[in-house]
Amino acid sequence: MPTYEYECQACGHVFEELQAMTDAKLTKCPKCRKSKLVRLLGSGSGMIFKGSGFYETDYKKKSAPAPAKKETPKSDSTPHSCCSGCPHKK
Hints:
mainly beta
């Protein structure tokens, strides 16, 4: 529900009233009881977020998946598996 600001033209009393948009405008001043109220033009209020909150990370762009690791080729300096100390190289 929006908050409306009123000013009494008779006594100058200014106050805010929380009203539904469909409610009728107030006409009687709560201070002097005269029917000289004028609803002022307000700037309105900003957005009000209720709940657990909004976080910077909620709408961040997801990064592209990392490229798959390439296997490194085995070195040719390993001895052949036929015997220990084999002079053959793979």
